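In the laboratory, one determines a bound structure by crystallizing the protein with its ligand and collecting diffraction data. In a computational setting the workflow is compressed into a single prediction: the sequence and the ligand go in, and a structural description comes out. We illustrate the idea with iron/sulfur cluster.
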Amino acid sequence: MGSEVTDETNGWQEAWEAAENGAVAVMDCHEEIPCNPCQEACPNGAIRVEPHVCALPRLDPGACNGCGRCVALCPGMAVFLLDRRERNGFARVTVPYEMGGKPVEGDVVQVVDGEGKALTEGKILKVRAWGGEAPTLLLTVRVPEEVALKVRGVRYRLIELDEGLEVENAPPLLDYPICRCEDVSLQNVRETLRSGVRSLLTLRRATRVGLGYCQGLFCQSSLREELAAAAGREAWKMGSFRVRPPVRPVKLGRLGGENA
Amino acid sequence: MKLRRESHPLVVVGAGPAGLCAALEAAEAGLPPLVLDEGSRGGGQLVKQIHRFFGSREHGAGKRGFQIAEELVSGCLGKGVEIRLGHKVLGFFPDGRLLVDGDEGVFVLQPGATILATGAVEKSFPFPGWTLPGVMGAGAAQTLVNQHRVMPGKRALMVGAGNVGLIVAYQLLQAGVEVAGVIEVNRAVGGYAVHAGRLRREGVPILLRHRLRAAEGKKEVESVLVEDMERGTWKRFSVDTLCLAVGMAPQAELAAMRGCRLVYLSELGGFLPWHDRAMRTDRPGVYVAGDLAGVEEASVAMDEGRLAGLAAALDAGVLDPGEAAERMEEVMDRLELLRGGPFGEPRRKAKERLCSMTGLVTGGAGRKAGIRGRTGRR
Ligand SMILES: Cc1cc2nc3c(=O)[nH]c(=O)nc-3n(C[C@H](O)[C@H](O)[C@H](O)COP(=O)(O)OP(=O)(O)OC[C@H]3O[C@@H](n4cnc5c(N)ncnc54)[C@H](O)[C@@H]3O)c2cc1C
Ligand code: SF4
Ligand code: SF4
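The predicted complex, in structure-token form:
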């Protein structure tokens, strides 16, 4: 969430000013990705993704009436509404909500920033639903103006961040299966390679890798990499197992014409 | 006992967005195909996607994945496309006939032309503890929570901060699973910032330069060891679920069996069938589309499907060449734009290299164009 983003690039300054007269969209979308539902969503043509689908969305705050459709339909959940009508140091922010539970007006929630850190506690003023049969909820909360542009979501409970427990000594790398269907270990494969084996097929004959249920689906690329490391070549050049029917398991009886 | 035989002028394998759009386009041109899919619902990957899709209107963007799937299926049915679900294509005979396993038994299908749209499979890699219950692909976790409504565990760690990892981590949260974090070996998030943003605001840390070292536990995953690559230290996360979102690879077995030439393009997920701009492979009457033709996005899969459907109808003589050219041009232009931007650029270049070769890619010419090839049938 944006310290690196300047007002000029995303129109926040304009939106901030326009919000004095009522709700207006604020867009937090700064990458050229193939996406434009926000433009399609807007009944007033206030958002343009031009000249092509990967362009950044541009909002014309003057044309936006704060209806919230773009907030609901943006797949990135990157559009919010800002409303500074109260002009008393508080602003109303509307965020999209797709988590569980049934938020209702009056619920007290944690209002969080882009990192999930609590900015303030607040009451849900309004709950709306928009976006067809499986709608997105739009939740409006009231927050001090100075944090309004930082609001990215609401949460019913804050999870404790878990950075993991530091481990004192790095444990030694154990041996483990590389082909799980036939239970062939990595060390077994490496020993076989040390004996001079340089092809996938010979490796298979020598160790049974790739002969199990999955037919090499899971192990093939790892085997290629082991071979490539041993041979000092690129992995994709190490060949592939030949593909044979059936590519899906089937009972032999069915192949004989039974239907059971 | 002899196997039953059937024939159809156009067979589509895979009812994902690529296969369904191919079917729609061919049907509109007057060549309604038979679509086969092993799944119980039409829509491929879309069936289990509960998030709203990016893309543009032509791709149903702004709607949720499963809704796009329903629309594509009903669109196809309305155009006279026959979709047979629960039908596994087991393989090809050398002459191009398919062996299919469905509720009517196993049968042999003689196609006029074939469009392969078999999608992609999740990549996996071995590490200490990877065979413990609780280690799964992100796609598997997604199927559990979104389709079967089963929680894979109470607390999960996601490996890989590409779009799939970010989106599935969010969906695990939606299902009520705690997500301890997303770890990523690279210095930057690989997926879209907006997807990373909606995860971060839920308090889920995205740990860059962190490498998965081991899953630990007696009978199932109890914890996961992770290396902090910058500091050279190790951390242990207490989780019961470890999800891997480390990329997808084209599911090219059937194409290989059909004799299509495979080429290797890492930007597109690995080995994939060579094809031209209209999605024709080097085998006459065999077309490919979607993730099979390079792992990209549903929007791209749809447009590639449309091209394959048009090409098949054109080659079958049911579509006027002028009209076909016009439609194809329109779709190709859109594809070009979809692959714009910093994320699409490497894929656009890889596709360009691939398609710049006309006809069969021969070793020398292929090497010159930077294309690494091998034939499927060996
Ligand atoms: C978590 C996640 C989120 C995504 N989000 C987005 C998004 O927001 N926007 C976007 O544009 N893209 C998104 N994508 C990508 C998109 O889902 C895929 O690119 C798209 O589904 C590819 O379509 P497809 O038709 O090529 O393959 P698939 O959808 O994979 O369909 C292939 C079909 O072929 C069938 N099949 C395969 N082999 C056989 C066989 N032997 N016999 C019978 N049937 C067979 C399968 O059952 C399947 O139904 C996302 C992907 C994932 C995993
Ligand atoms: S809030 Fe409504 S009017 Fe404003 S940009 Fe969004 S969709 Fe358009
Ligand atoms: S819909 Fe959302 S993610 Fe897509 S371009 Fe618009 S603001 Fe960005």
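Residues A 27, 29, 35-38, 49, 57, 74-76, 78-79; B 54, 194 surround iron/sulfur cluster (ligand 3) (CB under 6 Å). Keep in mind that any predicted model is a hypothesis to be tested, not a measurement.
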